[in-house]
Amino acid sequence: LEDITLKTIQDTGNILKQGYLEKRSREHSFFGSEWQKRWCVLNRRTFYYYASEKSKQPKGNFSIENYSARMASHLRKDSRKKCCFELTCPGKRTYEFTAPSPAEAEDWVDQIQFLLKDLSSLTIPYDEEDEETYNDVDSSDSVNTTSHNTTLNQDEANIDMEQDDIYEVLPGERPN
């Protein structure tokens, strides 16, 4: 059953990003906070972290809905401070991570922000122009469309009333 749980998370095809990050532990030691290497997996709604890539059970996970992601160089004082980012949500725990490089940290933040934008919208935007076009359709124009349809329906009613006169009476013939 444990193998199935791991495969369900990692083989679903919904993984947006995965890789090793250092995660700051919740418990702080006498010497300050502890950074632990974790295999992290981001899917469409959940952030999982494991002891290693081969672990069968996650050490923890959380829904990323309502979280925000940002670079956070203030988390470390050493040479890796530009590799740090954090996930925050009002009223919930803040998660702090260090990536192997600044570019990798920015990629994690970008992926999470993209996913959060996707979760907050009802549709998946392909690009901004398509999204605007789609939104125009759903705007108040629908009122005009309804009245336009009513006009068309009235025209159809007039055509129905003229159905009796669709045949032209030729000279010398009597109408039925």
UniProtKB/TrEMBL annotation:
Annotated PH domain residues: 14-117
Keywords assigned by UniProt, alphabetized: Cell membrane, Cytoplasm, Membrane, Nucleus, Phosphoprotein
Regions of compositional bias (Low complexity) in chain numbering: 140-151
Compositional bias ranges of the Acidic residues kind: 130-139, 157-167
Annotated compartments: Cell membrane; Cytoplasm; Nucleus
Chain intervals for the UniProt region annotation (Disordered): 130-176
GO cellular component, one term: nucleus
UniProt xrefs under Pfam families: PH
Chief location: membrane
Protein's name in the database: SKAP1 protein
Natural source organism: Heliornis fulica (sungrebe)
Lineage: Eukaryota, Metazoa, Chordata, Craniata, Vertebrata
